[in-house]
Amino acid sequence: MPQSIHFPRQAYPSLQVGDIAYRINQTTNDPSGFTTANFGTQLGEVTNIQDGTITQDGVTTLTTLISIDTDATVADTPTTSFIYFVKNEQVEVGSVTGYYGSALFENNSNRQAELYAASCEFSESSK
Hints:
This protein has about 130 residues and is mainly beta. The chain has a domain at about 1-90. Helix content is about 5%, strand content about 35%. The protein contains one helix and seven strands. The strands form two sheets. Strands 1-6-5-2-7 form a five-stranded antiparallel sheet, with no helix packed on it. It has a two-stranded antiparallel ribbon with strand order 3-4. It starts with a strand and ends in a 35-residue tail after the last helix. The mean pLDDT is about 75.
């Protein structure tokens, strides 16, 4: 059953339709006083992503509306919950194919930056 969650900001560049959404409910009843969390509950697959706005008390906020195909009750998600997304490994994992590869590293800031390492995995695809 599709359900929706509003996030109070836009720009989730890595979120895609087909990702799996999870929810972690935070609790603060740890004897040490630290905030702890459980391992999370799978909500379901993301079926739609839509940027928009919401206006409350005269204040307009950029939002992202995400539809999730789930049996869980998303509406009961506490505001202290952490929502995260996991990629489908069969779609996202792979290697570069072809005969030529190129990479460009740019520093877009005004400050000096140092690249510690860059690596590449390759194998001969044909002979």
